[in-house]
Amino acid sequence: MSQNWELLLFPYQQAAKEWKVKLRGIRKEFQLQDEHSPIEFVTSRIKSVASIQEKMKRRNITPERLTEDMEDLCGLRIMCPFLDDVYEVVQLLRRRNDVEIVSERDYVNNEKESGYRSYHIVFRYPLQLVTGQREILVEIQIRTLAMNFWATLEHSLNYKHPDVFPPDVHQRLQAASETAFKLDEEMSQIHHELAAADADADEATKDDKGEQ
Ligand code: 0O2
Ligand code: 0O2
């Protein structure tokens, strides 16, 4: 069966655009209220035709089952400043009524063998098309800046040099992922301490004013 890829992928492109607006809107809302935003930035990608075809082969996915069985045709990525922010974004998504969550995979606390960490959510999104409403699957990967740094470089190293990966490189990449995670933990700790110091200072100011 020959596929009209442009037509098939159009709803996914549309969904990616709509979701970038929604997610960047969340960041803006926090900023307008002078609050810490758990979202640093958002990117998206539509799976390439070559990558779709490779995955169809690898997973034995038929063209008829493609849009149900391939959950990441539309992929969004949310980068968070701190570790806690990843779970705050997960909560924000769970509370929304414009999505129906289909699955969640926590690779933050259960890292993959490669060292990969991210929180993956797949949800069903009702898209409004000229032909009516259509529910499509969207995947969101939520990760910290440090996790993104590691995953971006590891992906590019794997992609560029797939055949010359000696076992010790895998180990070194795993170790690098551990280092990135320690950095995340330390930055989160500093963030908590500063937030607590801020709260104490606010309290002291209130007390001072109360005494006057
Ligand atoms: P802003 O003001 O930086 O948030 P588009 O959706 O058209 O705006 P496009 O071309 O589809 O963007 O690209 P993509 O990959 O979806 O998103 C790119 C966005 O991610 C850009 O935002 C980049 O600034 C942002 N981005 C990518 N890498 C980084 C990074 O390391 N740090 C930060 N802070 N942002 C990054 P915009 O659109 O320029 O808007
Ligand atoms: P793309 O289009 O390049 O983003 P599968 O897709 O079959 O490999 P599965 O079980 O469907 O795996 O999904 P999984 O493992 O939950 O998520 C797959 C996606 O997570 C990948 O997309 C990557 O974006 C990311 N990912 C998973 N493991 C790793 C890893 O070890 N390193 C890096 N850098 N990223 C990883 P694809 O398949 O690369 O597609």
Any overview of this molecule?
The relative contact order is 0.12. The chain has a five-stranded mixed β-sheet. The chain is 55% helix and 21% strand. The protein has helices at residues 5-32, 49-58, 66-69, 83-95, 145-160, 167-211; strands spanning 41-46, 74-80, 100-106, 119-129, 132-144. The mean pLDDT is 94. Strand 4 and strand 5 form a beta hairpin. It is of the alpha+beta class and 212 residues long. The protein has a single domain, classed as Beta Polymerase, domain 2 (2-Layer Sandwich). It contains six helices and five strands; from the N terminus they run H-E-H-H-E-H-E-E-E-H-H. The structure holds ligand 0O2 (2 copies). One ligand 0O2 is lined by residues 20, 40-41, 43-44. The site of one ligand 0O2 has 5 residues, from strand 1. Pathway: Purine metabolism; ppGpp biosynthesis; ppGpp from GTP: step 1/2. It comes from Fructilactobacillus myrtifloralis. This is GTP pyrophosphokinase family protein. Pfam families: RelA_SpoT (PF04607). InterPro entries: GTP_Pyrophosphokinase, NT_sf, RelA_SpoT.
